[in-house]
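Hi Q.,

Before the meeting this afternoon, I wanted you to have the adenosine-5'-diphosphate prediction in hand. No need to reply - just skim if you have a minute. The sequence and ligand are here:
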Amino acid sequence: MADIIQLLPDHVANQIAAGEVVQRPASVVKELMENAIDAGGSTVKLIVKDGGKTLIQVIDDGVGMSATDARLSFERHATSKIRKAEDLFNLNTNGFRGEALASIAAIAHVEMQTRTEQDEVASHIRIEGSKIIFQEVAVGPKGTSMMVKNLFFNIPARRNFLKSTQVELRHIIDEFQRVALAHPSIAFHLYNNGSEIFNLPSSNIRQRIVNIFGGKTNEKLVPVQEETQVVTISGFISKPEFAKKSRGEQFFFVNNRFIRSPYLHHAIVAAFDGLIKKESHPGYFLYLTVDPASIDINIHPTKTEIKFDDEHTLYAILRSTVKHSLGQFNVIPALDFEQDQNLETPYDYKNKSAHQPGVIVDAGFNPFKEENWTTGGRPNFQKQSTKGWESLYVGMESQGNKNHEFSSVSFESDTITGSIFDDSKIGVDSVTTTFQLRRKYIVATIKSGMVVIDQSRAHQRVLYEKFLKNITVKGAISQQLLFPLSLTFSKSDRAIIVEIQENLTTIGFVFEAIGEEEITITGVPLSVPESGVSMILEQLISDYQQDFVVDGFSQTDVLSKTLAKSLAVKTGEMLDSESQLALVNDLFACKESQLSPFNKSIYVTITESDIDKKFM
Ligand code: ADP
Ligand code: MG
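Predicted structure with the ligand bound:
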């Protein structure tokens, strides 16, 4: 039998390859836009006609190409982005296969004009079905303009497969948005049939999202931020109440490349579990940065699927990071959204009855008996009821709220927040023994091993949530001072106190009078020592000035943080075992027990198997 194997001519090979790379006009849009970005452009314009069927043009102001490169760029496997296989493991560019232009030129009419900084003239090339029609010099700006006309002109079957102009345009817009979201610092424009659809100035991620999806999006976004050895995560998730019936705004970017990952998507869905209805979909814009060597982008010709070395770890990190952001958002009620604060309180006050105002007097109380007090400025963690502390405090409700019926208020977010942290608790229900390490850490045993807790951060967290809760439910207990305390402040400081007076009152400060410069205080929050009042107020004022507080939300937040910071036990303080135990239990009763109010880790767990490994 005669030999029958032949090498396919280039143009046929290119057409076959094109089938992989170019499914529809949107694929061309993606490849051309990615090339424009790889070329370092600061502005990228996309112009389409008839859903890309008649024209797709991408114009950039990037590095451009020399005359030789311009010609070479249409050859298969022609790329400036990698030279050897190892380069694949350190990729910073969108493209690397050197296939896109060759493929596109095989199945369309392509016209390119390009000029580098150094060259005085531009190159102008026309290619139709892989055949060079002409290459000439031209006058033009630095950068590249790539025009793709009559896609699939030589493959009628493919051309007939294209959907309606509307559908193809929709795909183009999707692709455009993904690229634009991945590169917020680059300006993008999109024109369809002569009219502008998007005009996106160079911006940050949040502004880019808002510019694409509309001004209302801004208030829906909850920031996400996490840095670990494996991955850095940043971006935004949508608040649960804005979850959509249709899948829509769901974006993963890995090293600035849009990717699809059903597996990682599942991690997000899992984090939202219980917060949104089954049939609705959470929105997210998440940017993952990983070591390029730890991923394989090569597995899919259009590169929207990638393979991670350690997908399981990534899944876990992603899920807990998103959960954490949701938790942060729920812990701190949305006071800045013009809503009744009480309606939004996430704390478990639903079942508590209304707090009756009134003074409880303990006839046998001796205020000079030291042990009834907190010792050495250190709060006592014991439950008040066991020590009859109530005698020191005046049950208090703030201004005009005397008849407020807490029990009649529905607390909508209770169920939501209740479910967030349930399974992230580390099983500390059974903590019975603890010990203190170097007056800094508290060590406790848990189901899986042990937990080492930073005492100061833990206490900050406990106090922070307590103060937040007090502010939001307005049921704080005030501790009456034996003698009114007069403090003097500058005019500007005084103005700040007046501004935040309402919140100060809700957490337990009682002002007798606020004069020109003097402020008289008759009551302070529980656990604030009298000697510390002046320092705390000063700290508050300075935190306010620095934090640029503009709304109720940040006001309560700053207030609670300041108090927590000032009052928390410090490193170096010795805690008796009762206090240690109470602190541990209080910590794990918190809505968020992993991070301090200042986003520092509160504890680490060391599992039994961690320890076992050390003995191997
Ligand atoms: P790849 O992007 O995978 O390298 P392409 O076929 O998309 O392959 O492009 C081939 C080469 O052409 C690129 O490596 C690059 O050097 C050059 N090129 C393509 N588009 C542009 C552009 N807009 N500006 C500058 N150079 C470009
Ligand atoms: Mg490319």
